[in-house]
């Protein structure tokens, strides 16, 4: 039997290909390698956040605070840069990761120790994080001219002709892939989301596992925060406003089960790229922003409908088998 | 069997039954749950339905309330044949059930709960809140319940919720009230209030079917009894014509058609000692020892605290007191992970919910509790995992296309094998099996029993929690009986008789038992 996950990814890759072909018929330049690389670069932040979100969703939780975490971490990095412009980037990166992890740990703590539903916790912290940005920045923008060249150069620094931002995404994809498929923690994420009751009996601490998922999601959001602010060379209260919905959408389109315990890194990356291509391609083929939103929205609903249908079909098979399963154990 | 004649010999009760089930049959795939049972309910009388677990009590309740359809037999309402194709039909005929877990809505008011689905309407077709409140108050008062119909159900205790459920039953003009273990979750005082209520319902001419495992309350409030055993009708009659001993005999006196594996247990050294385990609400003063190669049965009624104790033993819940000694070393088990490390594993009763992770492949399920051994520094060793999974799935003779197959696509029996393989793969010292054969057919049961015998022969210590007497008697070397959170007896050898165990479990007068 071919796992559905695989066919789902093939389907998604095929949809992405069709989309590219359609765009290419109108605007051949879009599929030039250099442009595709640019699209990937443009989607890097989404990929990084979506992979963090994927881990959280695997454990049957959701993190709505990722975009606010990104904005807060980005603002702190930008403010630090204004007071210490010559700080080596490695420190800025370290700060971004640590602060992001801390903000994620706050979410995780409330979910683990106080047993508050993740959607409520992260809805709250989402607003709180934005509020903190306002407090520390006084509502002011940090603009390009206030940032040191070193600060803004990092995401643009090219290795083998590919900008550092893209390399970061590639690195995150690789790390999350190893984490999810090759470590016992990764296995726990699937177990906790797949059947929390069973996970408890097998000696997995469900709350702690969910906490760690939030920490990882927060860390990646922190990384994305610095990359975002330095790439666009601006920081203010509302950057990446509403971006958490794109992140969740990328996961859903990529085949992550909202009920937890299912999905793959490859699928999530494809899901993010699918949204990235729509976002970048539709303007160049002269389709109005309204259609962009409508197409993104339709993609989400189609993806969820596919998930729901596959879930139902599976359920029926299990039931049928269980009803007639009276051969000796 | 002398009791089989009791039915024809019983005195005809006053009046005709309001509801009679004659020769009811119900077949599930592979299992005949009911085989021609009779049940008669009389107005103004309480009929106690007694039988062991698996006797068919819940099935007959479901037929009575229109949830299951019988495959044979007849239902007579006031002497006229009737069918209950849906629960609504049963309710319309005045049959209502108050279940073990009362099905009500916490966020609605008491009045809404009572009238949900048949609320009084105003002329405009809108809810008539005033009438609803007034009528709810009237019903509550009629059963002597001091409950404000305007409060939310969530604010009430379990006993009060029962009263609301009963009020709801009365609001649809019930003629037959089914009470399925209504006292299981109630305190002493609440139980007495329930008895008074039952008397009131009797006085109102309701026919009451009372299902209970507790003999004291059966003899206190029932007028008649009906006994089922293994899906068959055994006897019925007036309660004042039988003794507790007679009822026990009717419940357990079976033809032993189940064959258990022949074992000659070789008991090794003591492996586990439990001393003074207690929990604030579930159990207290649990002491016992367990030896290598032994099968120790835990018998008791549902709710006696057996599973709760086992879950505490493996660190799911914390005991308030107590210690364990494992191979001579005192240990504190604070989490399932520690229990697994100490070699104590628990195969839960609800294997669907607490067992397999259905979206995961077989091999990942099998190795999940053993990941500490099949990983290095947090990194999985997939080859070792596969070897471990292959070894134990082969041992359990699990046939699947590939170990990569998601468990959800396996049959129920194979899913069980995955769950058991998972625990054996941890190489435990003590394996606790909670109701290992619940809900599986006779053939599969025999296979599980064989397997248990094999494990014990290999030197594993086995604890078997079971509510099925034949299984307890057939498999155990020694039996601990629990009642209301305490160990009330520990029996072995010739003392292990059905009568002894049932008496201890049900708490039947000790002088009687002696």
Strands, helices and their partners?
The complex is a heterodimer of chains A (329) and B (514).
Chain A: H1 4-26, H2 33-58, H3 66-83, H4 89-113, H5 118-137, H6 149-153, E1 158-159, E2 162-163, H7 164-182, H8 184-194, H9 196-201, H10 206-232, H11 243-253, H12 265-284, H13 289-323
Antiparallel strand pairs in A: 1-2
Helix pairs in contact in A: 1-12, 2-7, 2-8, 2-10, 2-11, 2-12, 3-4, 3-5, 3-10, 4-5, 4-10, 7-8, 8-10, 11-12, 11-13, 12-13
Chain B: H1 6-9, E1 19-28, E2 31-41, E3 46-50, H2 57-64, E4 72-77, E5 80-81, H3 87-92, E6 95-98, H4 110-115, H5 129-142, H6 158-171, E7 176-180, H7 188-203, E8 207-211, H8 215-221, E9 224-229, E10 232-238, H9 244-252, E11 270-278, E12 286-291, E13 295-300, H10 306-313, E14 321-326, E15 329-331, H11 336-341, E16 344-347, H12 351-354, H13 362-367, E17 375-376, E18 379-380, H14 382-395, H15 412-424, E19 430-434, H16 442-457, E20 461-465, H17 469-475, E21 478-483, E22 486-492, H18 498-506, H19 510-513
Parallel strand pairs in B: 3-8, 3-9, 6-7, 7-8, 13-20, 13-21, 16-19, 19-20
Antiparallel strand pairs in B: 1-2, 1-4, 4-5, 9-10, 11-12, 11-14, 14-15, 17-18, 21-22
List its salient traits:
heterodimer, A: 329 residues, mainly alpha, ABC transporter involved in vitamin B12 uptake, BtuC, two-stranded antiparallel ribbon, 2 strands, 75% helix, 1% strand, disordered N terminus, B: 514 residues, alpha/beta, Rossmann fold, 4 domains, six-stranded mixed β-sheet, 19 helices
